[in-house]
Each structure stands twice: as structure tokens, then as C-alpha cells.
Design goal:
- The protein has 4 helices and 14 strands.
- The chain has about 270 residues and is of the alpha+beta class.
- The strands form 3 sheets. The protein has an 8-stranded antiparallel beta sheet.
- It has one domain (about 40-210, about 220-265): Jelly Rolls.
- The model is unreliable at about 1-40 and about 195-205 (pLDDT under 50).
- It binds 2-oxoglutaric acid (AKG) and fe (ii) ion.
- One of its GO terms (molecular function) is cytosine C-5 DNA demethylase activity.
Length: about 270
């Protein structure tokens, strides 16, 4: 069973430090089943094992402030739906995106596409949001931001990891969500075979929507978070090396969702 630690500071913007939080209890000591706890508690730490961890805080920002961000981003971000390469073939990326980075950082590139790096100065509300993320995560630092807009349930992001050389071996990625609730899935990367092949690869496979079947079992190698309007999810440690994540198509999800992932380019 996955090991969730309670946040003793519910109601604040701070996550407990899982290394030092001696008062935290494993979830199994507190209440069953664990899925209820995810809904009741305002923030949880999910220990994925082997040095990987996810933190989730449902109410990082207030409902109203979150809608203000949504309206601003929807209107003022120069959204682009780029053509990317999937198995060498050009396809339209199944969501809009934009990239913001501090000056002088290594370029971002994925699936044959190199997004233009916009400056933080172009978007003052995002500088404020970056400050709020830094305040919520003492000791963490971010200098770049990938923005995604899912215009309905047919937009998605396939199984992938955010593993860039320039992020170092244990990147921390902080994800803030606005608008429509969608499922964020994590699954353990398949182990290398005896021939040394690892399949499927961890590349972005934007031509292949992830399976619609979300296992409801307590498979420790699979986790689902319903990311709420104004929520914060943080992936830490070896999550990008050992786990894949995706936001699958959900035809019934009719409205727009905007997700921001803050990253540190070293
Ligand atoms: O939209 C999300 O929640 C995830 C986006 C993501 O994984 C990415 O931009 O790399
Ligand atoms: Fe990602």
C-alpha cells in the first residue's frame, strides 16, 4: 500500500519536510481507505518509493484568485498549438502551450520542437505566482515554466517524463492547475528487459492517447490525482527517472483546463 504522510500544518501553504516531520503518521495508522484521505486532507505526501515522491495540495490558491489567474492566462498568454514529430511524423500537439524562462538558460526541446522562451517580464502575474510557489515550497527554486492549455476533453498529454539533461538527475517540478478538473496519472516506468531495452520509451508520444482504462485497484505502481482548480502538485526526487505521467483524454470534460509546470534549469 502506498505510504501517505499527513500534513500536520493543514491550512498553511507549507508542506512538511518529509525528512524531518517526526509527527507525521502513515496513513494506514489513521484511516482507511486511503482514497478518502486524499479527498479529505488538504495536502498529502505520497512516497512512491526508491527516492521518488509526490506532494499534493488541493487548495494552494483560493477559488477566486485561481479564476483570476485562469482568465488572465486564457486571454494574455500567446498560446501556440505546434506541430511536433511523433515517430518522425508531423502531428499537431494535442494541446496549446507556451514557454517562459529566465535569460541565459539552456533551450527546451521536445519531439522535434523548440519553443520560444518568453521573458517573465512579459507576464507580471506569473512573476507573482512564481513568488507564491517559492513561498509554499521553502528551499525550492524554479526559473522556467511550461504552460499547457487543454481546450476540452479531447486535448491531452501522453505518457512521458520531464527528463531533461539541463534539469539534473532529480528535478523538482511544481504543477499548478486552473479550470476544468482532469485526472493526472502516474505509472512506474517498465524495467529494462534482459536485452537492455526499455519499452515503451519515456519520450512524449503525443500521437498515442494513454489508455482510457484507469485501474481502480490499489496498484502501488499506479496513482491517480484529480487535479483541482487552484491545486499544487509537486514531483520530486527520482520521479522523472522512474515514473511516467499523463493527462488522458476525457471526452466528458467539456471545459478548458490550464496547467503550469514550474521547473529549474540548472
Ligand atoms: O497538464 C498537466 O497536468 C501536466 C503537464 C505536463 O506533464 C508537462 O507539461 O510536462
Ligand atoms: Fe510532464
Amino acid at each position: 500500500m502506498m505510504n501517505l504522510k499527513l500534513n500536520p500544518q493543514n491550512g498553511t501553504n507549507n508542506f512538511p519536510n518529509p525528512e524531518t516531520s517526526s509527527s507525521s503518521k502513515t496513513m494506514s495508522e489513521v484511516v482507511e481507505p486511503e482514497v478518502h484521505l486524499v479527498q479529505l486532507q488538504k495536502s498529502v505526501v505520497v512516497d512512491l518509493g526508491h527516492g521518488s515522491e509526490v506532494l499534493y495540495r488541493t487548495r494552494f490558491l483560493s477559488y477566486e484568485e485561481s479564476w483570476n489567474y485562469f482568465e488572465y492566462l486564457n486571454k494574455h498568454i500567446p498560446w501556440i498549438r505546434p506541430t511536433i514529430l511523433v515517430f518522425g511524423r508531423p502531428v499537431l500537439q494535442p494541446r496549446d502551450s507556451c514557454y517562459i524562462a529566465s535569460e541565459g538558460l539552456a533551450e527546451l526541446g521536445y519531439s522535434g520542437y523548440k519553443p520560444h522562451a518568453h521573458s517573465w517580464d512579459e507576464f507580471p502575474p506569473l512573476k507573482k505566482l512564481l513568488d507564491e510557489v517559492h513561498r509554499a515550497l521553502p528551499g525550492s527554486r524554479f526559473n522556467s515554466l511550461v504552460l499547457n492549455r487543454y481546450k476540452g476533453g479531447n486535448d491531452y498529454v501522453s505518457w512521458h517524463t520531464d527528463k531533461e539533461k539541463s534539469y539534473g538527475p532529480t528535478p523538482e517540478i511544481a504543477s499548478v492547475t486552473f479550470g476544468c478538473e482532469r485526472e493526472f496519472l502516474l505509472k512506474k516506468r517498465p524495467k529494462k528487459t534482459s536485452q537492455g531495452l526499455s519499452a515503451p520509451s519515456a519520450k512524449r508520444l503525443d500521437g498515442e492517447p494513454p489508455s482510457k482504462k484507469v485501474k481502480k485497484s490499489k496498484d502501488p505502481d499506479q496513482h491517480t490525482f484529480m487535479l483541482k482548480h487552484g491545486s499544487l502538485l509537486v514531483m520530486r526526487g527520482y520521479t522523472q527517472r522512474d515514473w511516467l505521467h499523463s493527462v488522458p483524454k476525457r471526452v466528458k470534460a467539456g471545459s478548458t483546463r490550464i496547467n503550469l509546470t514550474f521547473r529549474l534549469v540548472l
